[in-house]
Amino acid sequence: MAKSFTLPVGLLEEGVLRTQVEINIPTARTLKRVRDALLGEKGRLNPEVYMVALRESVASLEGGPVTDARLHALAWVDAEFIYYQAARLEFDEPDPEIPIVCSSCDRFIKVRFPFNSVRIVDLSDPECKSAFANSTRTISFALGEPITTLDLAKTPVSAGSIGLLTVKQQLDLQRKGTKIGTAMLESIFGAIAELGGRPRGSFALADIEGMLSSDIKKIERTYNANIPGVFPPTDITCPSCEKPLSFTTIDWVTDFLAGHRA
User: Fold this and answer.
1) DSSP per-residue string spanning the chain
2) First vs last Cα of the chain: how many Å apart?
3) Of 218, 219, 167, 228, whose CA–CA distance to 188 is shortest?
4) I need a labelling partner for 83 at 20 to 30 A (CA). Which of 27, 119, 126, 149 fits?
5) 69 φ, ψ to 5°?
6) What was the pLDDT predicted at 261?
7) Degrees (nearest 5) of the Cα angle 77, 201, 132?
8) What is the distance between the alpha carbons of residues 19 and 257, in angstroms, rounded to a whole number?
9) Residue pLDDT, tens place only, 75-124
10) What does the pLDDT read at residue 114?
């Protein structure tokens, strides 16, 4: 049993954009496999649970077979969309009561979640305002101060473009468990699709460490201001501390698919 959806970003393969996906209605097997993969060493969240949930959720992906390589190449926001739609398919009511840990008071609570209040930013929508809404799914940027670290001739480079982080890049970051500053810089490095005419893979993290902090922040702001995908409502508050609740991907994967607790 599966239903068809259009991905907010889509998979760009050899210049062809693939946006159609079929998502499985979660079964007992889904629940078993995701729960089995949930925890890693010392009871910590196992990042592999995201790939397990993705494999279980995707029935078909336009343009070819469903392989780990193609799933890894999806934009992370597309994976979040798939998790969200799988969660919707799991419930037969528009505002189910779900379990969540409040990030403010650290208490385990249950709240009603209004699925219909979730906002989806789809790059294929003609009304979409995101700068990523183009055929390359990238945004160009200019540096305030050129860098000269990409070759031995110290050629000045002052422009590039960013793309959306892929599933593989996001999971690699989670596996590392790096500090906030390191994770920030590695995320931006992963998002840079092209730098001075050189494609991703032809330059290293060390090459961008000499960028001005103002340029790094500008790239970060541009990325965050234009990111598509799933945006949960922000007006749901914790019944215990009355602070706003923040719903993230971890809630779709662990609470919806793996963590239904009485």
Assistant:
1) -EEEEEEEEEEEETTEEEEEEEEEPP-HHHHHHHHHHSB-GGG-B-THHHHHHHHHHEEEETTB---HHHHHHSBHHHHHHHHHHHHHHH-SSSS-EEEEE-TTT--EEEEE--GGG-EEE-TTSTT---TT-STT-EEEEEEEEEE--SSTT---EEEEEEEPPBHHHHHHHHHHT--HHHHHHHHHHHHEEEETTEETTSS-HHHHTTS-HHHHHHHHHHHHHH--EEE--S--B-TTT-PBP---HHIIIIIITT----
2) 27
3) 219
4) 126
5) -60, -40
6) 33
7) 35
8) 24
9) 999 999 998 898 888 877 788 887 778 888 988 888 888 888 889 999 99
10) 85
- Residue 142's φ and ψ, nearest 5 degrees, are -120, 140
Predicted TM-score (pTM) of the model is: 0.88
**Is 5 within 8 Å of 85 (Cβ atoms)?**
yes
Those residues whose C-beta lies under 8 Å from the C-beta of residue 58, and which sit 6 or more positions away, are 21, 22, 23, 24, 66, 71, 82
Which residue's structure tokens are 């798939």?
A: 82
C-alpha to C-alpha distances, 60 to 71, 161, 238, nearest whole angstrom: 11, 30, 37
Phi, psi of 235 (to 5 degrees): -105, 15
Q: Is the pLDDT score of 29 beyond 80? A: yes
